[in-house]
């Protein structure tokens, strides 16, 4: 069975790392009146061994159940280097390419790699599975390391 794990960047200052790892996510939606007063429409929390910890919503990512070629866990929104391209790990509906003619032949829902640059002939989304995970390297995440992607678009 796949391990269910999520991570998020803590709102409050933490001792070791701002990254919090847990097993569940809670989203609180505020009324319009409260949102006007506070400037906050939502709050996000991750369930940890310490209890609920507030995190920044845009930082939340689910563990894919896979590790890269260096043994590092791969999470949604990680930046990876794969097949000569920088890719972001995403979750959702995506095209499944045919290796032979480099066209999408099907649609699937799950984790996938979204290339951030065009490197011919490979500039299509690829389903993230064990076969591809062993050939990629996690180099950061889009929350803390977006500059890594900007460097490669110049």
Automatic annotation (TrEMBL):
Coiled-coil portions: none
Regions crossing the membrane: none
Domain YopX protein: 30-150
Name assigned to this protein: YopX protein domain-containing protein
Lineage: Bacteria, Bacillati, Bacillota, Bacilli, Bacillales
């Amino acid at each position: 069975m796949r391990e269910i794990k999520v991570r998020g960047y803590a709102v409050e200052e933490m001792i070791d790392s701002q990254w919090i790892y847990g097993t569940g996510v809670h989203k609180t939606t505020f009324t319009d009146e409260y949102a006007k007063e506070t400037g906050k429409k939502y709050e996000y929390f991750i369930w940890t061994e310490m209890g609920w910890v507030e995190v920044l919503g845009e930082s939340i990512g689910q563990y894919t159940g896979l590790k890269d070629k260096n043994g590092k866990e791969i999470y949604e929104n990680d930046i990876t280097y794969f097949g000569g391209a920088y890719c972001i790990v995403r979750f959702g509906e995506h095209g499944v390419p045919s290796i032979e003619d480099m066209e999408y032949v099907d649609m699937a829902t799950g984790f996938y790699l979204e290339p951030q640059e065009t490197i011919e002939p490979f500039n299509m989304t690829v389903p993230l599975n064990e076969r591809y995970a062993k050939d990629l390297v996690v180099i950061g995440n889009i929350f803390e390391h977006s500059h890594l992607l900007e460097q490669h678009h110049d």
